[in-house]
Amino acid sequence: MVKSKKDGTGPRNFRIATDVVLAGRAPFKFEGFVNTPIFRGSTVLSPTVDQFLGHKGRYVYGRRGTPTTDALAEALTQLEGGAGVVLTPSGLSAITTAILSVVKTGDHVLVTDSAYNPTRNFCNTALAKLGVETTYYDPVIGSGIETLFKPNTRAVFLEAPGSLSFEMQDVPAIVAAAQKHGAATIMDNTWATPIYFRPHEFGVDLSLEAGTKYLGGHADANLGWISATEQYWPQLKDLHGTLGLCPGPEDVFLSLRGLRTLAVRLERHMTSGLKIARWLKTRPKVARVLYAALEGDPGHAIWKRDFKGASGLFSIVLKPCSPEAVAAFVEGLELFGIGASWGGFESLAIPFDCSKVRTATKWQPGGPTVRFHIGLEDPEDLIADLERGFARLNSN
Ligand SMILES: *Cc1c(COP(=O)(O)O)cnc(C)c1O
Predict the structure, then answer these.
(1) Rounded CA gap, 249 and 161, in Å?
(2) Reduced to 3 states, what is the DSSP secondary structure of residue 107?
(3) Residue 300, class by beta-carbon neighbours within 10 Å (0-12 exposed, 13-18 middle, 19+ buried)?
(4) How far apart are alpha carbons 300 and 125 in whole angstroms?
(5) Does residue 63 carry a catalytic annotation?
(6) Cα of 26 to ligand 1 centre, how many Å?
(7) Is 213 one of the catalytic residues?
(8) Which CATH code is given to the segment(s) 262-394?
(9) For residue 44, how far is its CA from the centre of ligand 1 (angstroms)?
(10) Class of domain 16-260
């Protein structure tokens, strides 16, 4: 539950599904229209020289914010429960901005070995060039992370569950170690969204997400956001302004629209995801299902302790078979597209291999791996489609 404000009624407590409907909306600021309109603009005029020179207006320049971006940032601030939210043009720019906001040359950062691969690429290239050293750590290290801190460790980057491989992380244990060593914690929370996990409640300093995924929810927008606690908010806001990051107005509007249905969409992604994951677990060709919401998953206990729900993204490990058989399985699927990104209304399936990118841990799943995004289609149709896929796999 977070505090919510409806026009004129003052702060009230609502549950999260109500909050996503109300947050950041003020119809009577816009002649009663339910949605905040798209403000397009660079120049903002001032009525007087004094107002212009003193930056005294509510808005000063399009890049620095509009009523549309304010509506989304305000809504997300409410959902995250931090001190403030900045919007970025993509999830990746949210990652890079969050990291840059807490480090300087000579610092050291700890990054989970299961991080989204472009996060690693940023650390290994741009961040290294600035003289910031990265050590990757085993995602399931928990309080064992303690031994990896150096005197110059400034930040710990978490992502749970891990990209593609879906290891859960013991967030409270990692946060406790980071706090002891005075390091900031940054978490990529794209999988759960604040509906199912709120990083600040677990002591995380900077919570970020690719709004491109579930917030937008329709595979038609790119957006990221970062939420910071009181302590980290001033430096985050400063750097965000310095870098000149501003998402396009259309994408901000689509994200606001996505927000209104986020809770119901996620509920459907979860129930269908669980149903299909349980079914997959019974298939003879499936060795393992990597989905913390599933009983028996190594991350299930932590997921149950900390998370309020699961989204519709998980992977499977197939029993050993040829790449041709995997391709026949995936390519023939009628309802699962082959493509990057996820979080839209449609189902996706992609083969993947993490073994070449890992450095702190070995990725040896024992067979080919496929990641699924379970969309909003009828799960029975999805199961029937996958069943035909296994028939193709078997005959290859
Ligand atoms: C997709 C993704 C991102 C990046 O989002 P973009 O908007 O595509 O830049 C970041 N983190 C995770 C976990 C993702 O899956």
Answers:
(1) 31
(2) coil
(3) middle
(4) 34
(5) yes
(6) 30
(7) yes
(8) 3.90.1150.10
(9) 32
(10) alpha beta
